[in-house]
Amino acid sequence: MKVKRECIERVREAADLHDVVSGYVQLKRSGGHWRGLSPFTVEKTPSFYVLPEKKFFKCFSTGYAGDVFRFLELKENFSFIEAVEWLAQRYGIALEYEEGSKETTLSKNTLLAIHEDALAHYQKNFAVEKTVQCYWIETRHFTLEAASRYGIGWAPERDHSLLPLLKQKKYPLEAIQQCGLFCVNERNQYDLKPRFSGRLMIPIYDVQGRVIGFSGRILPSVSAGKEVSKYVNSPETPIFHKGNILYGLHHARRFVKERFILVEGQLDTLRCWECGLDATVAPQGTGITETQMNLLRRYAEKLLCLTDGDAAGQKCALRVIELAFKTDIEVQIVTLASGDDPDSFLFREGKDGFDMLPQEAMIPYLIKTLLPQNVEATAVEKSVFLKKAYEMIAYCPSEVAKGTYLQELSTQLMLDLNAVRSDFRNFCGDRIFTSGAPSGAIKVTHVVNSNSMPSKLRSVEYDLLALILHDPVIGQKVGAVLDDAWISESFYGYLLLKVLMEIRKGCWEGPSCDNAVFDEKELNELFSILATEDTVDDVTSAVNTCLQALCEAFVKNKLNEINQKETQRRRFTKNSLDDLDFFKTLQSEKLRLRHMRSSCPKIS
Known about the structure:
By secondary structure, the chain is an alpha+beta fold. The chain has five domains: 5-90, DNA Primase, Chain A (Alpha-Beta Complex); 102-240, Alpha-Beta Complex (DNA primase DNAg catalytic core, N-terminal domain); 249-370, Dna Topoisomerase Vi A Subunit, Chain: A, domain 2 (3-Layer(aba) Sandwich); 374-428, no CATH class; 443-604, DNAb Helicase, Chain A (Orthogonal Bundle). Strand 3 (48-51) and strand 4 form a beta hairpin. It is globular.
């Protein structure tokens, strides 16, 4: 699904970044820029800047940077196309799609409309079914007002009225088959049976508050004497991907200040909301995913995991901690007594009871769970445990955080800190630990650890990259003369190489959220460089200086390698013909490298 490039540029030109951002952040003029508190995290000192002339924003707290499309992607969890369409509608711009793409957009809009009609249908059923209302009030202990507020509905047993309703509204058969509300007979695609029957219907919303699926809870009166699943959820559809959605995020993100609360299920979430714990979310019937944790990280840096006191709750907490290290989220664990869940506990004890529950940090919880003997454990038991802990900590993107966790381990286990640090370094060895990259992104596994943020120290690669980003014509000239072998194995070197590859393919139009070549950290850095002032007077001279520096560094490294080879060979030389040929070859290579240094290519 692609909008024509010229339409995207019209939207980009018409969209006022200050106008869009002002809906989320109170901005104040600061010289030629606008400044405010970060919309992506909690802070007291403003570190978020909007640069109106460049049409970019930069958030120094989180490292996020970009244009108006990227802002909406980060803040509203829009896809690139959704951001374009949202802005086009806001600024009254008609969009044109590449051939075959408009149908995909219409299909998604149709699926969303079907779910809205299904929601109204289920709610209407709930409003007239006294038995279900009784279950909701007397068994689940919620009010009818809460049912209306959260869109609770009812799918009766053997009810086939939804399909005729959708057909009456003239929805395409293909969309009805794809919506996930019906089971399709493989032999007869026209034979559609309701997926949900005899179930309390809980709508699932995306972060924009649009219904994209349902979770159906079987009623005890329906399941009596039958072997049926307690819950049935919508399957994967073009608008519903359970690993990328958190139940309740559309509500919780409006209330989160410092941290989210994570519970297991939808009814647990609703109970939390009813008790005033509005920043509560839940995964979609599966274990929490790294994508979901990264989604939470966009809004808050802390998470409280409220788990059941059984083995499943413990497994859930350990999974959350494992991902917390990868996504740089600070997690506290609250474990309920065996037999309790958040719904039952909060109904009985309320928010006051919740506030009294003890909270455990990640390292103490790991020790208590994986090494119950704590300091009384044997050396072997501690060693086995430490390897498990090191495996998690190694993925942490912050070196400072790694050091803090190692210090906690040494203190809790009464071990020498230097020994723990040394043990950790030996465990990591030469391995590179990276978390999952976005779909389509190139993951760095041999050149650079892309999880480590770039150093503030300027490098030749950084300077050359900045010159190219500020002047696309320069990029074409550099791409024509620069030998890629000269580029160092560093973050900026790797980023420069990727930009040059795009330029040579004729695909480069500046950093863009719809370009899958760059991952999130790389996009942040590209936009950050573009957001800086271009103060170079003689760009051509600056580029040639960079080219010369890269060439000289490359030649110097190669000459050092040749000198080492000569030294090693001389230790064992027998002055044979093979030795003479070997040294002759090396001398020829030295002459070639020196000629390269003296005749470094330049642009004009």
